[in-house]
Write a structure and sequence with these properties.
Elements (H helix, E strand, L loop, with lengths): L6 E10 L5 E6 L5 E2 L2 E3 L6 H13 L6 E6 L4 E4 L15 E11 L16 E7 L13 H11 L44 H16 L5 E2 L9
Parallel strand pairs: 1-7
Antiparallel strand pairs: 1-4, 2-3, 2-8, 5-7, 6-7, 8-9
Length: 227
């Protein structure tokens, strides 16, 4: 189901825990990380699609979460031609998304990555709200930045300065490097000068650190990726 401009309606999900950390999933057999997302089926509202995708991708149901907020309008990203199936090139341009901010009211062990035969993720963890965009596939980074910035207004941040300006942690569009700054631990991919390869190396180290973290939950092996 495409609109007249060639964008498929879609929902994105940012799931918070009690510490305002976000649910961060590793794509099956890839080194990229992302939030849950999925298409809106014909006849569905964005909210209905969000609950369906939440259950299909991470095994949580409506009673496990509370809606905190959503984006005011669609956020769009275009998909490069080499990621698009040949038969739909020229018609399909990308995704237009409504993003939801949810608060998880269930337990961590209620998450189930293997609910379907074609799971999207093979690992997950809780991450600081301002995620490192260098580990997100490039054509989605601008939408991630806009969604996080818009939805951050719904969050009550601690008075001790725990909230930081997002541009210190989010990669700016069309820039090789973000503004420098020191993070609060090894999980933030913060740019502080140099070339782009250093940012990628820092992001790779963040993934490696995450793999050893007790907060990461690994799924069983033998998963096939959902197309």
């Amino acid at each position: 189901m495409l609109d007249r401009e060639g964008f498929r309606p879609n929902v994105g999900i940012i799931l918070l825990n009690a510490n305002n950390e976000v649910w961060w999933g590793k794509r099956v057999r890839e080194h990229s990380w992302q939030f849950p997302q999925g298409g809106i089926k014909y006849g569905e509202t964005p909210e209905q699609a969000m609950y369906r995708e939440l259950e299909e991708e991470i095994g949580l149901r409506q009673e496990h979460v509370r809606i905190v907020g959503r984006t005011r309008d669609w956020l769009r990203y275009e998909v490069p031609d080499h990621f698009i199936k040949r038969e739909v090139r020229g018609h399909y341009r990308g995704q237009k998304q409504i993003w939801f901010l949810l608060r998880m009211v269930a337990r961590d062990n209620d998450v189930n990555l293997r609910l379907t035969d074609h799971p999207e993720f093979d690992a997950w963890r809780w991450h600081d709200y301002w995620v490192p965009l260098d580990v997100v596939i490039e054509f989605k980074r601008d939408v991630y930045q806009r969604a996080l910035q818009e939805l951050s207004r719904f969050i009550t941040w601690p008075a001790n300065g725990e909230r930081r300006h997002s541009s210190r942690y989010l990669r700016q569009p069309h820039e090789r490097r973000a503004q420098g700054g020191n993070g609060n631990g090894g999980n933030k991919a913060v740019a502080n000068g140099g070339n782009a390869s250093k940012a990628v190396a820092a992001a790779s180290k963040a993934i490696a650190d995450a793999a050893g973290s007790s907060k990461m939950v690994l799924a069983q092996q033998g998963i096939t990726r959902k197309e």
